[in-house]
Amino acid sequence: MVLPVYGGMEIEVGGRGGRLTQGVGAFVPRNTGHAQSSGAKNRFLVVDVSTGALDSASVERLSRNRFFAVTPAAEHLVQYMALALDGGGDEARSTHWLSLFLGAMETPVTGPKSRLSGLLEKLKSRPGRAWTVDEMAAIVGVSESRLYVLFRNAFDCTPHAWLAEQRMQAVRHGLSSTSMSIAEIAGMAGFSDQSALTRAFRQATNFTPAEYRKLQQELRSNKQ
Fold first, then answer.
1. What is d(CA 149, CA 143) in angstroms, rounded to the nearest whole number?
2. Per-residue pLDDT reduced to its tens digit, 76-89
3. pTM exceeds 0.70
4. Domain boundary among 71, 105, 139
5. CATH code at 127?
6. Which spans in the chain are helix H?
């Protein structure tokens, strides 16, 4: 597992590209190629997880998705371990920390994310649609104010902030894994035109879409 302490970086795992930032980690399965690049100051924890530490369903899910959300509780543990390593960590502490971290990553089935699961699938399947808050709330069956509370508790952001990140993920996938033009990707992800996408993408990643696509091509070439 690769876990951000601060800053961010672009990473490709097994042919799938994404950006690691606060609250987003990456799972690198054994014997899977990966490459990363960043032009800014950052720090990450690289955690070697033994086969027996995760159940088969978790391994399968993480291997399929590659990227995962780090829960607020788990993020506090990441910050703690970073400070502990500065003072010289030990194996016993690391083993205990890993157990706590994996426990903090588990989401109870009755939690806010489970209530949002149907909506999240719809948003992921059509990230470029002009979703309104009242439409989202109706799908979940709650008021608009309650929807904001559910998203805040589950993801520490608003519904549209979460949707914006899904659009960025769709754009990164389109740039790194398809031959679609940048204009086509902009339309697919819900941007009015290529210029609007370029502004939003540069703000989110410090790269233009063209620069990001070239970077992903170079990362793949370096692995060959």
1. 10
2. 889 988 888 887 66
3. no
4. 105
5. 1.10.10.60
6. 56-65, 72-86, 91-105, 112-125, 133-140, 144-155, 159-177, 182-188, 194-205, 209-223
